[in-house]
Amino acid sequence: MLKVTNLTKEYNSGDNKVIAVKGVNLDIAEGKFVSIIGKSGSGKTTLLSLLGSLDKATSGHIEIDGKDISSLKNNELVQYRRNKIGFVFQSYNLISNLTAVENVMLPMLFNHASVDKRKNRALELLEQVGISKEKQNRKPSKLSGGEQQRVAIARALVNSPKIILADEPTGNLDSDTGEMIFNLLHDLAKKNKTTIVVVTHDLSIAGKTDMAFKMSDGSLA
Ligand SMILES: Nc1ncnc2c1ncn2[C@@H]1O[C@H](COP(=O)(O)OP(=O)(O)OP(=O)(O)O)[C@@H](O)[C@H]1O
Ligand SMILES: [Mg+2]
Question: How many domains is the chain built from?
């Protein structure tokens, strides 16, 4: 479902050339939960950005469902990102002056659904990730870190993505809360057949995924 061939990303900053991702190959089946570990600076975030088409590879190919995304035009890439990929970040990235439910509705802004439909969908997802009714209309600052991450996960699920890319989603959480978020992602992968790629420093989390890869100096093992 997700096939990566010989993917390379070079950054040129001044006279320095950094090869952040070096000839990476990956083949991940639908519904698999995969983790990537590795030292700081080893290229994990860069790899996720390439997979999510937030950044363009220097060379190599990324195929999703047999379609090579490196050949997509810009407007097609936007569609791809919106409909196939959900992102979850370490810092939640919620909009602070919107409520939980408004944050979850945000990625549906471009859908041709009525406000009521969008709101119902957002409420249903919040329910699914365990955000109770009384918390749905709170702003992020009135929610705990774990709750904010649940909201962010609900938001990532809005357009029923095939793939969820999560960069250190438990990095700001204590280990119990981190484990709850991990279990939530795990259940989603299995229930919705969503493929999940999670970057983590937490070896106990990596040990529980279907496959664990180690990144070092841009290479994946
Ligand atoms: N926009 C950029 N321009 C130049 N170099 C960059 C850029 N982004 C990342 N790099 C470099 O690419 C390498 C990989 O960075 P990346 O952020 O992917 O690492 P990481 O594994 O996610 O690290 P961390 O665990 O600290 O988040 C590093 O050497 C970094 O300095
Ligand atoms: Mg990183």
Answer: 1
Contacts of 212 (CB under 8 A, 6+ apart): 34, 35, 36, 37, 206
pLDDT higher than threshold 80 for residue 143 = yes
Of all atoms in ligand 1, which is nearest to the CA of residue 218?
Answer: 14
Q: Kindly report the three-state secondary structure assignment for every residue of 13-68.
A: ECCEEEEEEEEEEEEECCCCEEEEEECCCCCHHHHHHHHCCCCCCCEEEEEECCEE
Q: Is the pTM of this model over 0.85?
A: yes
Q: What is the pLDDT of residues 40-68, one digit of tens each?
A: 999 999 999 999 999 999 999 999 988 89
pLDDT of residue 60: 96
CATH of residue 66's domain is: 3.40.50.300
Structural domain of 92:
2-220
| CB-based pocket (< 6 A), ligand 1 | 11, 13, 18, 20, 38, 40-46
Q: Which atom of ligand 1 is nearest to the CA of 215?
A: 21
